């Protein structure tokens, strides 16, 4: 009973603090989020916030997750465009690029910045509180969403692509790492305005690089089965 009460209290406090953090992000941007601002808006002290979150970086991570619902809602329909596992994987990248370049700072906080903690554990903590975010998502989609490490996420799906005979199993890890680095490189370029890409241009260029990198490793007799146009 005590354990249940503590869990209910934790859930309530997370909702208070993450709700406040989300509002501040919407009004002022993620760069202006501080523990003090969040605590003040939630009606608590900063010390209370620290009872539930390690630091402001963790709070930003969890609050940023509240801005990824559009991506999660769109992902199944994007993947449905694919006629085989490889096409579905490519369309999942299209969905991710589309949303991440629209909200670069949000996705950078979640997937690039140093959290000083194990991201997978943080993700599990988040979905313990916000379990309803996963309701209605197909099991394969849930496994993608729940895997924070993008290389592992891609490797898991790429393994099925290898089993379908499109690529060699030995190339799975390489493709996962290459595609992740391509996205991170473009995200860095985009955020630092090294090239003045629009969201659409950054998305298209990233998908072009990903497609060209992968298609070279697809068996020649299977390449004609890949009909991916973004």
Structure in words:
By secondary structure, the chain is mostly helical. It folds into 2 domains: 2-65, Homeodomain-like (Arc Repressor Mutant, subunit A); 69-114 and 137-225, Tetracycline Repressor, domain 2. Helices cover 68% and strands 0% of the residues. It contains 12 helices and no strands. It has helices at residues 2-28, 35-42, 46-50, 56-65, 69-79, 85-102, 104-111, 119-129, 139-146, 150-163, 172-191, 199-215. The longest helix has 27 residues, at 2-28.
Q: What's the quick description here?
A:
This protein is mainly α and 230 residues long.
Order of helices and strands: HHHHHHHHHHHH
Q: Which CATH first-tier class of the largest domain would you pick?
A: Mainly Alpha
Question: How many β-strands, per DSSP?
Answer: 0
Mean pLDDT: 85
Question: Architecture of the largest domain in CATH?
Answer: Orthogonal Bundle
- Helical content stands at 55-70%
Please state roughly what percent of the residues sit in beta strands, choosing from under 5%, 5-15%, 15-25%, 25-35%, 35-45% or over 45%: under 5%
User: Which structural class is indicated by helix and strand composition?
Assistant: mainly alpha
* Main beta-sheet annotation: none
CATH topology call of the largest domain: Tetracycline Repressor, domain 2
Give the uncertain stretches in residue-range form. Answer: none
Distance between the termini: 53 Å
Rg, Cα atoms, Å: 19 Å
Number of domains: 2
Query: What form results from the Cα inertia axes?
Result: elongated
